[in-house]
# Entry
Amino acid sequence: MSRLTIWDASSNSQVLATEDPGEIAAKLKAIGVRFEQWPRADLPDDADADAILAAYRPHLDAFLASTGAGTADVIKLTPDHPMKDALRAKFLSEHTHTEDEVRFFHAGTGNFVLHMDGQVFDAHCGPGDLISVPANSKHWFDAGENPNFAVVRVFTDTTGWTPHYTGTDMAERFPAKTI
# Structure
């Protein structure tokens, strides 16, 4: 289930909480973030990356054509992954990227938390959700202590995904509340 919680960054007070996909999309669009929902493909839990990409090919082709992005891959992370804690730590600090960060959730959930315009936007994404965080946007990501997701990643240039940490304590002040 998709959820958006907005907090005032200076007072830590909640401004909005909604599960309405239309309202989520509108609030995120106002800060330049693309949010949409695609029909979820009916695939077995153990579907490999090629099967996931093939199932979403019509949506991916349209998305790639509309954005100029060039490639897509699939990342899966499960609670038994030996590097899950290190991977989680890499995403938990506020950072930016030099290109848009685009993720489509085939399975599982995660929170993209953005720090923009004096507010913190906690976008809890689940199966069928696509989120595109604009380049140079301050954000962090959390899929919880026991991550379990299969996500399609879209890139223009994979080197653009390198995180550039801001050095702030925002992610510690606003941990994802809806995992």
About this structure: Residues 86 and 163 are 14 Å apart (CA to CA). The mean pLDDT is 93. The first strand starts at residue 3 and ends at 8. The first helix runs from residue 21 to 29.
